[in-house]
Design goal:
Blueprint (H helix, E strand, L loop, with lengths): L2 H10 L3 H8 L3 H4 L2 E7 L5 E4 L2 E5 L5 E2 L11 H11 L8 H5 L2 E4 L3 E12 L2 E14 L9 H8 L6 E5 L5 H12 L8 E5 L12 E5 L3 H11 L4 E4 L5 H11 L4 E7 L10 H8 L5 E4 L8 E4 H12 L7 E3 L4 E3 L7
Parallel strand pairs: 8-12, 8-13, 9-10, 9-11, 11-12
Antiparallel strand pairs: 1-2, 1-7, 2-3, 3-4, 5-6, 6-7, 13-14, 15-16
Helix pairs in contact: 8-9
Length: 333
């Protein structure tokens, strides 16, 4: 899907009253919107490179005051969920239980409501009152500068990090296109658990869409002999361990993590594990749309971690001949 199709697919999921409030806005606002946020009983909100926007329903908007903004009803939120799931909520149960739903072949909407649990696990989500519709952007050339700086002399294990809406997924999709196409033609595998990278274009590329990251990585290694595996949003210790296991087998990775600053690389457990394992060559900070990325050397970050934590007894690095694994040894004091 192209950018206009992505936007149209997102708008098509909205009730007419809310859709009209958006399409009447100036074109530069509509076409650069990245998220449409609906909350029952609260003002409609748009987010994009421009920041926040509250439409008034008559083609005007405010960045600060939502007084005239249409307020979605609980019924309109429910109608939106029905549209996002193609009127088959049951078939999307697993996704909804994980806090999101995938729509329009690769775009994602977050959901929040009342969870029903059993044995400590979420079994159902009812009374959904908040929906965050994300609009995917394929931007050919978004990763041109980064790829030239990082991959010009060969593949490197790379971590992209930044806050939400900083462009991590957009950058990963373009990296997949670049590395799998002329002149590289690397064998690229994409472990696309949440179906957000499947719209990436490329030539020598295979998608493991909807697989849990662990399975996607394992199956790619077993059957497709990839040169590099791409993953979006590494977030759990289990995900981290699987990546580290695969690194020990010689596969390279380009992946992303939520991390708002360089400092957080040393305080967020998963990020810190990636630094401390010593296997990642580059860490790339994405400060936001339209801003130039910052590239950090992985060896320098590892040395800094050693200086910061080794003498305090909390550096949690274990190495052997077969692989590198990181084990949590307590929090950062």
């Amino acid at each position: 899907m192209n950018e206009n199709e992505n936007l149209s697919a997102a708008l098509a999921c909205l009730p007419e009253r809310l859709r009209r409030a958006i399409v009447l806005l100036p074109t530069e606002i509509v076409e650069t919107t990245l998220e449409i946020r609906l909350r029952a009983g609260l003002p409609l909100m748009l987010c994009g490179a421009y920041g926040l926007c509250f439409p008034d329903g008559n083609g005007k908007f405010s960045r600060l005051f939502p007084d005239k903004t249409p307020t979605p009803t609980a019924e309109e939120v429910a109608q939106t969920v029905q549209a996002l799931t193609d009127h088959s909520v049951y078939s999307h149960t697993d996704e909804l239980n994980s806090g999101y739903v995938t729509y329009a072949d690769g775009m994602r909407a977050g959901v929040a409501g009342r969870a029903g649990t059993q044995d400590g696990r979420i079994r159902s989500v009812r009374e959904i009152r908040s929906v965050n519709i994300r609009i995917a952007k394929n931007v050919d050339g978004a990763a041109k500068y980064l790829s030239r700086k990082v991959f010009s002399d060969g593949l490197k294990n790379t971590v992209l990090f930044g806050a939400p809406l900083s462009g991590k997924t957009t950058m990963l999709k373009d990296i997949a296109r670049i590395l799998s196409s002329y002149p590289y033609y690397y064998r690229v595998a994409v472990a696309d658990e949440r179906r957000e990278l499947s719209a990436a274009r490329g030539v020598n590329i295979d998608f493991f869409t909807g697989y849990p990251k662990k399975d996607g990585i394992e199956f790619a290694m077993r059957s497709f002999s990839p040169d590099v595996i791409l993953c979006d949003e590494l977030g759990t210790e289990e995900d981290c361990r699987e990546v580290l296991r695969a690194l020990g087998c010689g596969v390279r990775f380009v992946l992303s993590v939520h991390c708002g600053s360089r400092r957080e690389l040393f305080t967020r457990p998963v990020c810190r594990a990636l630094v401390e394992c010593g296997a990642f060559d580059r860490f790339v900070f994405l400060p936001g749309v339209g801003k130039e990325c910052e590239i950090f050397d992985g060896k320098e970050l590892y040395d800094e971690a050693v200086r910061l934590y080794h003498d305090r007894g909390v550096l949690s690095l274990v190495r052997n001949d077969a692989q590198r694994q990181v084990f949590t040894a307590g929090g950062v004091s």
